Amino acid sequence: MEKPFGFVVIDKPAGLTSHDCVNRLRKVFGIKKIGHSGTLDPSVTGVLPIAIGDATRLISYLKGSKAYTGIIQLGTTTSTDDTQGEIIQSKIWPLISENYINSLLENFRGEILQKPPIFSSVHIKGERAYKKARKGEKFDLIPKKVTINKLHLISWSQSKGELLIDVDCSTGTYIRSLARDIGYKIGCGGHLKKLRRTKAYNFNENHSVLLPEKSEFYSENNKPKVLNPTFFFKHLSTFKLISEEEIISWRSGRKISFQNDIKRLELSNNKEIEDSIINILVLDKEDKILGIAGLDESDKIKPKVVFNAIG
């Protein structure tokens, strides 16, 4: 029986954790080797890439930004910086225009320092911040650098005090913190009311499918399509193995030389050239992934991740 290998992109519904989605797919495919590429809070919906089978070994090689559409509610500050927490303070939001908001948002574009929410998965001396917060412990979190590639105001409702925004940002950015800080900058406080992720790395909404419903029996008809992972690693350079002898050597963990045929190493268009050389996608003649390699000083590719026969 062919082993599933690739990614399923779930349009995560509200109310489920990312781990809930993983567990559902483990039952759907009947295998344990399934993992997600980064958690979404239970209240957040949208793009959740999940690696199936040996593709879990590729998760750490994913690159790219993440994008969201969200609603910021002005006037109310909460303990969690979203609707799940207790209300700390309430104020009336001021009379402001879209032009004023756009000008203010300029403070949050580009590389900024951002303090994570108190209720977050950040580690503090070996313990998650949210666990310490639940116990009522007092602590402070160190701001970290994040990059906001795009921050666009879609609409502003003066009557509701709601900002509808689009955000494209680096991995590790907290949209809850962004909502909190924008509210603070306006002077009335704020929190994240609603959030949907529209992109994660090279996965977007067009790739996503609904999470299969709970069932005692899953057949081929109700299994979501597993996407070929090759498409999602175009930020990496590629190297093709052209003979069965090379493939056998590769799967035995040996280095492969290409001194006499440098064209076999196809450099990606990735601006981070150093990264595209550090990690090289190794393919066969049919463009199936055989693994991930590095480049040594003697013009040889050296195995980092090796897949035996897939399927």
| Structural class by helix and strand composition | alpha+beta
Give the CA-CA distance, first to last residue. 8 Å
Main sheet makeup: 10 strands, mixed
Provide a count of the helices.
6
Q: Which stretches are low in confidence, meaning pLDDT under 50 for 5 or more residues running?
A: none
Give your account of this protein's structure:
Strands 1, 2, 3, 4, 7, 10, 11, 12, 13 and 14 form a 10-stranded mixed beta sheet that branches. A 6-stranded mixed beta sheet has the order 16-20-19-18-15-17. The mean pLDDT is about 90. The longest helix has 12 residues, at about 20-30. The termini are close together. It has 6 helices and 20 strands. The chain folds into 3 domains: about 5-65 and about 200-230, Pseudouridine synthase (2-Layer Sandwich), CATH 3.30.2350; about 65-200, Pseudouridine synthase (2-Layer Sandwich); about 235-305, Archaeosine Trna-guanine Transglycosylase, Chain: A, domain 4. It has helices at about 20-30, 100-105, 130-135, 175-185, 245-250, 275-280; strands at about 5-10, 35, 45-50, 65-75, 75-80, 85-90, 110-115, 125, 125-130, 145-155, 160-170, 190-200, 205, 210, 235-240, 255, 265, 280-285, 290-295, 300-305. It is elongated, with a radius of gyration of 23 Å. The relative contact order is 0.18. It has about 300 residues and is α+β, with helices and mostly antiparallel strands. Helices cover about 15% and strands about 35% of the residues.
